[in-house]
Amino acid sequence: MLQAPRAVQNRTDRMKRALLLCALVLQPVIRLEAGRPADVANLKPEAIREFEELPPEIQAVLRYALSLTEENLGYQYGSGDPLQGGMDCSGTVSHVLKHLGYPSPRQSNEIYLWVEAAGNLKRLRNPKSLEDSAFTALRPGDLLFWEGTYEVGKRKPPTSHVMIYLGHLKASGKPVMVGASSGRYFAGKARHGVSVFDFVLPKPGGDSSFVGYGPVPGLAKLPEEGNGNGPLSTILSRLRDP
């Protein structure tokens, strides 16, 4: 069999190496996070102060989401399947809801539009504090949305992150959420994977912003309390009392 001249073969090898190098360089950094070992935190549902008073449908969402935090799942961009060993933020939320029979879209901005189309979205722009009256309607089981947590190109709206609000810890009263992330904190430690996280607002002047929340379409809603006596404001007022 005739062989390619050495010069041609060498040129072919160099092209292959160059293409491989380009693939590695151009691969989004966030995808490389899939190689990191999981470092997650978990809770029992009973550790949430509001849990016992929630409708069964919302309890089921929180219970299943928290069960995933016990599986030592890492953060894996592009995955919505725990059998792959990890998931990303919208993959986790979509998986939880679909597992329980809710037709959640897959991508964070699509989930945002789904909640908005149902008339459930509470839009916010850079709230300064969780004590803001804008959070009066926030309930366990609601979906939380951010922009600017990473580059999303021409995505509209530019929603980049979504998690599930859990409520408040019985032990400390701190608000917490569940989902997938790499670098968000819980109990003073950065976590990587499908985990429980502290629910905190982005620092002023940063790239990211918290843009809204709302209940899952079709999921049982807790009674609206527009007079400032909702669960979040009630808990905060109790913490302020001596």
Describe the secondary structure blueprint for this structure:
Blueprint: H1 6-26, H2 29-32, H3 56-68, E1 74-75, E2 86-87, H4 89-99, H5 108-117, E3 122-123, E4 143-147, E5 159-168, E6 175-186, E7 189-198, E8 209-214, H6 231-240
Mean pLDDT, to the nearest integer, reads 84
CATH homologous superfamily label = endopeptidase domain like (from Nostoc punctiforme)
* Rough outline: globular
Portion of residues in helices? 25-40%
Parts with pLDDT < 50 across at least 5 consecutive residues: 18-33, 225-242
Largest sheet: 6 strands, antiparallel
- Give the CATH topology: endopeptidase fold (from Nostoc punctiforme)
What report would you give on this structure?
This protein is of the alpha+beta class and 242 residues long. It has helices spanning 6-26, 29-32, 56-68, 89-99, 108-117, 231-240, and strands at residues 74-75, 86-87, 122-123, 143-147, 159-168, 175-186, 189-198, 209-214. The protein is built from six helices and eight strands. A six-stranded antiparallel β-sheet has the order 3-8-4-5-6-7. A two-stranded parallel ribbon has the order 1-2. It starts with 5 loop residues before the first helix and ends with a helix. The relative contact order is 0.18. The model is unreliable at 18-33 and 225-242 (pLDDT under 50).
Which labels suit this protein?
6 helices; endopeptidase fold (from Nostoc punctiforme); alpha+beta; 242 residues; six-stranded antiparallel β-sheet; single chain; disordered C terminus; two-stranded parallel ribbon; 8 strands
